[in-house]
């Protein structure tokens, strides 16, 4: 755990959870299970981890890891976590492979609202997209929905970190990036699990952010062209050999 992992769920999921797999069988695991919702506890259970209860401990020997980059060791642990989630969360056969999904952040986390979201959703549904709401969804719901997704559009935020553990290798994740908080950390996350990353910068508006729908359609066309050149592996664990480049 780091101060950032304590503050933000996305960093807990992307950094603290994979680091927990570094614990040896004879070591106690100190991993706080966040209480701001059920997702952290659900991930810990599905990942077959057994952290100590929160408390005060005297440690005569303590190993502390800072594990921010997406190197070979971390990629291997991400693959292990994906395999554990696939094994412990049944597929449910709720969704067919090849779907396109708009992952709606809603009012979860720090407010990041899209002013013209209704218009955005109409544009995407006209292109065959389905809408999935994070609010009220369990980890099992997220896993079952996105294991079969071919393309996902979502605003930048911690909700996208769920997708690193669910989307199949070779699938395309298009991030709507606010221009006033531009970050490319999602590029590293996507490449670590062999997703095809795409980005569209969106500007602040009176009621949040506004998506330029013409630019979005152009981005979708670019993504479709790239997806035609490479297969999407819809197995739950995926194929590490797939290594797409950014759009």
TrEMBL record:
Source domain of life: Bacteria
Residues in Glycosyltransferase 61 catalytic domain copies: 9-174
InterPro entries: Glyco_transf_61_cat (IPR049625)
Annotated Pfam families: Glyco_transf_61
Protein name per its UniProtKB record: Capsular polysaccharide biosynthesis protein
Protein species of origin: Hydrogenophaga palleronii
